[in-house]
């Protein structure tokens, strides 16, 4: 199935039905209350004066200060750092570990990538989708303002080398946008990198309503149109939204025409992140949280190598 460039209105959208995006993309089988600040977090661990998270740091209990609904199953959560003049301490590309302790005393730990500017002081945001059986996602969705969640980090995923890649392709689906967004905003906000790096984001979702961070992405494309392009892909259309993008999955043919040739003399990198069916289709799964594993799927079929592709 190939994608078609379209602009749909509500009337046209009402006639279209399709299955969920990530499962048919290819045939490859309130106002907030400010919480008090302190020199020590709620576990008693002293924090850095300038960075909230440093290597080998202890778990830090941070209060939830704001919640915004982004889609029917996804929200943006703002957590306050211990000090107003602190940054998170994360670098590109890194995440934070979250933890809570169940009533039975077991630990539930999950990684999440903040979507705020790494230089932002005082707080950071997480974009999280709730899953029916997700222990951590349900715990976070049930948090009330000023209640706390345990954090630890930074968890480095990819040590991004500045001014190394001439062209970057960001290939994502659903909440897989979060680490890709961190890379994107870090490059575009750096005047030493932005003019020298072309970035192409291909972002798939079930419906236009499910596209996360769309206002931010559209604004970045408008501001940096010379070096950044975003293309949206959806599996089906809402009956109440206009949509300007592609209908269908990110096809092999679309990738072939929109990306540099695998053997191009330009230095390129492909970053990919999404749910398991998406990863299986395009790159193959990671071998483990710390190991990339063998490259497979559409990207391998197109001739790209493991050195050119990084899986989040």
Report what the structure shows:
It is an enzyme of class 1 (oxidoreductase). It is a single chain. It contains 8 helices and 13 strands. With about 300 residues, the protein is α/β, with parallel strands linked by helices. The two termini are about 25 Å apart. Strands 1-11-10-9-8-12-13 form a 7-stranded mixed beta sheet. Strands 5-4-7-2-3-6 form a 6-stranded antiparallel beta sheet, covered by helices on one side. It is globular, with a radius of gyration of 20 Å. It has 2 domains: about 180 residues, Rossmann fold; about 100 residues, Elongation Factor Tu (Ef-tu), domain 3, CATH 2.40.30.10. About 35% of the residues are buried. Helix content is about 20%, strand content about 30%. Strand 4 and strand 5 form a beta hairpin.
Number of individual domains: 2
- Per CATH, the superfamily of the largest domain is Nucleotide-binding domain of ferredoxin-NADP reductase (FNR) module
For the biggest sheet, the summary is: 7 strands, mixed
The Rg value, from CA coordinates, equals 20 Å
Q: SSE order, as H and E? A: EHHEEEEEHEEHEHEEHEHHE
The name of the CATH architecture of the largest domain is: 3-Layer(aba) Sandwich
Give the C-level CATH assignment of the largest domain: Alpha Beta
**Number of helical segments?**
8
Proportion of strand residues: 25-35%
Helix percentage:
10-25%
Low-confidence stretches: 1-23, 27-48
- Using the coordinates shown, work out and report the CATH topology of the largest domain: Rossmann fold
Describe the global form. globular
What is the first-to-last residue Cα distance? 26 Å
Structural class: alpha/beta
Strand order of the largest sheet: 1-11-10-9-8-12-13
Number of strands: 13
> What's the overall average pLDDT, rounded?
87
Catalytic activity: 2 Fe(III)-[cytochrome b5] + NADH = 2 Fe(II)-[cytochrome b5] + NAD(+) + H(+)
EC number: 1.6.2.2
Protein name: NADH-cytochrome b5 reductase
GO cellular component, one term: mitochondrial intermembrane space
């Amino acid at each position: 199935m190939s994608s078609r460039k379209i602009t749909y209105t509500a009337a046209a959208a009402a006639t279209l039905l399709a299955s969920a995006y990530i499962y048919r993309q290819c045939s490859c089988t309130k106002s907030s209350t400010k919480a008090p600040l302190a020199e020590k977090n709620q576990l008693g661990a002293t924090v850095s004066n300038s960075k909230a998270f440093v290597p080998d740091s202890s778990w830090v209990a941070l209060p939830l200060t704001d919640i915004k609904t982004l889609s029917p199953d996804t929200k943006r959560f703002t957590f306050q750092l211990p000090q107003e003049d602190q940054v998170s301490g994360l670098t590109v590309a890194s995440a934070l570990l979250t933890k809570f302790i169940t009533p039975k005393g077991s630990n539930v730990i999950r990684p999440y990538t903040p979507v705020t500017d790494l230089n932002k002081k005082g707080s950071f945001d997480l974009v999280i989708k709730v899953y029916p059986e997700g222990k951590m996602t349900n715990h976070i969705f049930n948090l009330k303002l000023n209640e706390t969640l345990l954090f630890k980090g930074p968890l480095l995923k990819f040590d991004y080398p500045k001014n190394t890649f001439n062209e970057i392709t960001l290939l994502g689906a659903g909440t897989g946008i979060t680490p890709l967004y961190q890379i994107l905003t870090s490059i575009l906000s750096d005047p030493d990198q932005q003019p020298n790096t072309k970035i192409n984001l291909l972002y798939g979702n079930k419906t236009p309503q499910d596209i996360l961070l769309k206002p931010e992405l559209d604004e970045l494309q408008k501001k940096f149109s010379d070096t950044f392009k975003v293309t949206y892909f959806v599996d089906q259309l809402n009956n109440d939204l206009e949509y300007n993008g592609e209908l269908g999955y990110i096809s092999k043919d679309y990738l072939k025409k929109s990306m540099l040739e695998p053997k191009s003399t330009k230095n390129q990198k492909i970053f990919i992140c999404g749910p398991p069916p998406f990863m299986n289709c395009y790159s193959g799964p990671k071998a483990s949280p710390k190991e990339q594993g063998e490259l497979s799927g559409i990207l391998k079929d197109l001739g790209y190598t493991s050195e050119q592709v990084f899986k989040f």
